[in-house]
Each structure stands twice: as C-alpha cells, then as structure tokens.
Description:
Blueprint: H1 3-7, H2 14-65, E1 68-69, E2 93-94, E3 100-105, E4 109-112, E5 115-118, E6 122-127, E7 133-135, E8 138-139, H3 147-150, E9 157-158, E10 161-167, E11 191-192, E12 194-201, E13 209-214, E14 217-224
Antiparallel strand pairs: 1-11, 2-9, 3-6, 4-5, 7-8, 10-12, 12-13, 13-14
Amino acid sequence: MNINRLKGKKGFTLIELLIVIAIIGILAAIAIPTYLSYVNRAKDSEASTNLGAIFTDETAFNATNSTYISAGAIANSGANVPTFSTTASTSTHPFYATGVTYNVDTPPYQCVGTQLDTYGGYTPYTNGAAGTVVAAGTTLTKALGGFGDIGFLPKGTLYFYYEVNTAAAANTGVPVSSTNSPWVAPANAVCGPGYTALAEANFTGSNLQAFAVNDYTTKATLITGTAY
C-alpha cells in the first residue's frame, strides 16, 4: 500500500460539512411545511367533494319527494356524534362502521308533519362482517334514514364528519361564522323545505374546520376555521 498516496488525499473539512448540513436544514424547513400544506389541502378537498355530492343527492331527493331530509346523528359514520375541540385532533373514520347492519328506508316516501314516512319498508345494508354493536352501550336497531335514503354511501376512510339539518323554511344563506362547533346532532329523516349540510373536522388538532352548503349553494363555504 502506498502510504504517501493515502496521505495526499483530502476529505471534507468540518466547516464544509456544517455548511452542507445547514443547506439541508434550510431546504427541509422550506419543503416540509409546503408538503404538509399540500396534504392538508387534499384533505380539505374531501369536504368540498362530499358536500357537493350531498347537495346533488338532496336535490334529486327533493325533486322526487318534494322535501329535503336531515341526516347524521348516530348513523353518521356508525359512531356517536363526535366531540369537536379547537385543540384536540379528530381521528379518521369509516362513514359506516365495519360489521354493522343498517336498515335503509325504501321508497315511496311521504313527509308527514316533519318526519319522513316510508311505504316501501326497509332494505338491510351491511358493511363488513356480521355484527350490530357500534360503540359501548350503542346498538343500531332502527332504520338508517338520512344519508341512506338520499343514497350518500361514501367508501373508505374519511377526515370529516357530515350532517344535514333541515330548515322550517328554505335557507337564505349558509350558517354564520362561529368559533365553536356548529354540530347539533340532527335526528335522521326529519323532512322540510330547506336544509344545511355540514362537514366538520380538526385533523391537525389546531384548526377546527366546518364547511357548509345549503339547498341553493352548490359550493362549500368555510364557516369555521382556516382553509389550507
């Protein structure tokens, strides 16, 4: 081995290594927040897409049955109504819990008072393996109503929770901006001439968001929180 030749080779100096590390740190500081922003924007798009679908489904339901209906409560996502917070993050969830059999109302329908009545019976909808218990002390045994009736059955994991509230009269605008959760846990299949649909989540734990559409607003409007 030629020792003199090895001695003549030079490596990186400490200053050079520190400069490279600093450059990598600067690039990471720029790239990571940008990447997270894109990820959160993609999550936000879920709310707009699904609220648009709810608008279409409710419009079609109203065209056929001359009424809108509420949806949400315990049948929404197959779980109890979530507790939203401005500081605690909400977890992802399936829209309908795996292993639960739901009863979807079958047309024809009629709005009697403020409650939708079905004259076609019920159609079982099972998501996954057999089972009925959704959460401790909670068993779904009644008709699904709501989302099942308008045909809103999203698949996969969701970031937002959804609900539809019917109005005693047609809406004149989306709900006013609020610093608190506007979630009110509507009863399923309450019928009326107007509605407001909400999508709500706090997937970062620092930004409680609520998007809304109503019976004449097709584009989701942010009413609580900050859009990414």
